[in-house]
Amino acid sequence: MRPEEAYTRLLEFQRETAYLASLGALAAWDQRTMIPKKGHAHRAMQFAALARLLHQRRTDPRIGEWLAALEGSPLVQDPHADEAVNVREWKRAYEKALRIPERLAVELAQATSEAETAWEEARPKDDWKGFLPYLKRVLALKKEEAEALGYEKEPYDALLDEYEPGMRAEELKPLFAELREGLAALLDRILGSARRPDTSILHRHFPKEKQEAFAKELLLALGYDLEAGRLDPTAHPFEISIGPGDVRLTTRYYEDFFNAGIFGTLHEMGHGLYEQGLPPEHWGTPRGEAVSLGVHESQSRTWENLVGRSFGFWRRFYPRAQAYFPELLDVSLEAFHFAINAVEPSLIRVEADEVTYNLHILIRFELELALFRNELAPEDLPLAWGERYRAYLGVAPRDYRDGVMQDVHWSGGLLGYFPTYTLGNVYAAQFFKKAEEALGPLEEGFAQGEFGAFLDWSRRNIHREGSRFRPKALVERVTGEPPSARYLLDYLNRKFSALYGF
User: Which residue from 49, 59, 48 is spatially nearest to 141, judged by alpha carbons?
Assistant: First the structure.
């Protein structure tokens, strides 16, 4: 078979697989937003059936034959050409899929669907014992998956590689150590400052319908296409891409807390902007897919924090916030900006400030690593969780809901995902610094409502590349150097020394 014919057949087959997978994404969105309570059991079986079909397609022997026909052909000579990128990633995915038994793929799909439903019901009730059997089943299956995929040193690496290709636990440890040292020093200075924001202003009454209206106004102003997406409430915010022209966001609103709904929306919007910026002509192929979760999180954390918590951003939008929420009319812009950037060790990751956020991630990374090394049993997670929160943040949960059960990730089988949040923060600061070198200081533009230049820069340099480059190579190509925690620490020290006066 000629290489050109093999590539055409492979492309058509993989695109059809992508269409089927996108139906699974639609079902996942529905399960976490709209599904009636009694529909969950049937949905779990739908996921199992779809997982079986997708696994059969992803391990189809014809993929191996087509890939073999392309080996060494002119189509793949240039490693950065579209065809070569697709073949490289299809080969990687095919080899991984072959290692996973069909029975395991189906069991995982059903177990995670059932566990997510159990988590949504158990968390409000603080029912750790009721949720634990579901978590144990998911963990056992993910350990089996890690063994099937294979690894050099750590079982955890097999799963981490799914979210951040090429990343290993031994590379994360020094990164987290550097961040922990730098963040602890900064946190000590902040806690020693005499300045304190009045965060009670964020706990006034903010009606949900007004939060939603304001959130949608922000989405439109920042460049998110609401005709190619939507915003809905859910138990735990997420973004999901169904396909070109359909990138959906979710958030959650608390009427007594401003930050959760608005900044949750900005975070998920960052993900959505990335997905809407991927090249649609390459949809269904690796060239049209995000390169990694770390790069994905760099976009969400950028728009949530470097843009959304900046003073320039709120110079533009605070008058609109006051129009929506008269409760803020007696609060100055400066007081509001200080409050939304308040630094205080807390229990909830998604509501954590920029200084302490990565300590929340460090805790989860260490616990996941211990689980996969069999140094920690699932039953002992609450105790270990509390011990680390006391050690790293000086706080400890009084219940499971705001402790070990606060995140949806483990129920969904997303073990190895959490470190990508910190990688995202590292990449974000480095990308943002480079964007300012190219475009000039950005914050004054934000104050004038100008976000297009920065979004266009991100689309040219990051979004449009899809998976052409691996994560570290992309960072180095865009910024001129490998990923470094220095830019994140510099940004945090500059910002919070100004706010806290040291």
Answer: 48
Determine the Cα–Cα distance for residues 418 and 360; give it in Å rounded to an integer. Answer: 9
Burial class (CB in 10 A: 0-12, 13-18, 19+), 160: buried
- In the structure, how many helices (H) and strands (E) does the chain have? 20, 3
Enumerate the domain spans of the chain: 3-150, 169-500
Query: CA 383 to CA 115: how far, in whole Å?
Result: 21
Distance CA 487, CA 172 (A): 17
Quick count: other Cβ atoms within 10 Å of Cβ 174? Answer: 10
CB-CB contact of 239 with 250 (8 Å) = yes
What's the rounded Cα separation, in Å, for the pair 423 and 433?
16
> CA–CA separation, 320 vs 211, rounded Å?
11
235 pLDDT tier (thresholds 50, 70, 90): confident
> What CATH number has the domain spanning 169-500?
1.10.1370.30
Determine the Cα–Cα distance for residues 252 and 265; give it in Å rounded to an integer: 8
Instruction: Give the strand order in the sheet containing 239-243.
Output: 229-233, 246-251, 239-243
pLDDT digits (tens, 9 = 90+) for 315-355: 999 999 999 999 999 999 999 999 999 999 999 998 899 99
The per-residue pLDDT for range 433-490, each reduced to its tens digit, is: 999 999 999 999 999 999 999 999 999 999 999 999 999 999 999 999 999 999 999 9
The Cα–Cα gap between 455 and 303 comes to 10
Active-site hit among 145, 239, 268, 289: 268
Q: What kind and span of H or E run contains 234?
A: none
- Single-letter amino acid code for the residue at 131: F
Largest CA distance in the chain: 74
The DSSP output letter for 257 is B
DSSP-assigned letters across all residues of 456-498:
HHHHHHTGGGTTSS-HHHHHHHHHSS---THHHHHHHHHHHHH
Cα gap 317→221, rounded to integer Å: 10
Torsion of CA 239, 341, 348, 182, to 10 degrees: 100
Is 268 catalytic? The answer is yes
Residue 365: φ, ψ to 5°: -60, -45
DSSP secondary-structure letter at 407?
-
As to burial, measured by CB atoms within 10 angstroms (0-12 exposed, 13-18 middle, 19+ buried), residue 99 is: middle
249 — phi, psi (to 5°)? -115, 150
